[in-house]
Amino acid sequence: MKIHKLFPFLCAVAILGTLSFTIPKKLQKKVTKEINKTFDIENFKLDEIEISDDVNNLLVRKIEGDRLFKITADTNDLIGYVYIDKAPSKTDEFDYLILLDKNLIVAKAKVLIYREDYGGEIGSKRWLKQFNGKTLNDKLQYEKDIVAISGATISASSMTIAINTFLQNLTILHQNKVL
C-alpha cells in the first residue's frame, strides 16, 4: 500500500532528474578542477548549450545533452566552453574533456577517467599538449600531426579521432551561430 503512494513521487523525481543539469558526480569535481586551473578562475557557472535537432543532424557526430557547456564568470563574462564525452579504448571507453577559450581555440584536452590496464599514457600532460591551440580549421591525423604512443595505439588514435570530430562539429556549430 505504501509503495503505491510513493510511486507518483518517485516518478516525478526521476523525470526531474533527467531534465536537470547533470555532469556525473565522479566527473564533476575533475571538470571543475580543470576549469579552475586552465582559466585561473574560482567562481564560474556552466550553462548547457542547446543544439537544435536541425543543427545536430548536420554534425559529424551528434552532441547529446549535458556534453557542451558555456563557461561564464560571476559577471556573466564569457570565459570559454567545455565539452565532455567518452571515446572507445581497446575493451572499454574513457571519459575526456576539451576546454576551449572564448575564441574557440583548444585550451586543454584532458583524459578524466581511463578504464583500461594498458594505454593510460594518453592521459599524460605531455602527450595531450599536442591538442592545445588547435582550432576549428585544423584537421588532425594520428601518426602525422599527433605523435603515436606504443602500447596505447587504440586509445591514442581514438582520442585523436574524438578531438578531430569535435573540431569538425565546432565548425558546423560556429557556422550555424550556436557558438
Automatic annotation (TrEMBL):
Sequence ranges assigned to domain FMN-binding in this UniProt record:
98-167
Q: Which GO terms describe its cellular component?
A: plasma membrane
Q: Does the keyword Flavoprotein apply?
A: yes
Q: Which UniProt keywords apply?
A: Electron transport, Flavoprotein, FMN, Phosphoprotein, Transport
Q: Which residues cross the membrane?
A: none
The processes (GO biological process) annotated in the record are: electron transport chain
- Asked if Nuclease is a keyword of the record, the answer is no
Q: Pfam families recorded for this chain?
A: FMN_bind (PF04205)
GO-annotated molecular function:
electron transfer activity; FMN binding
Name the record gives this protein: FMN-binding protein
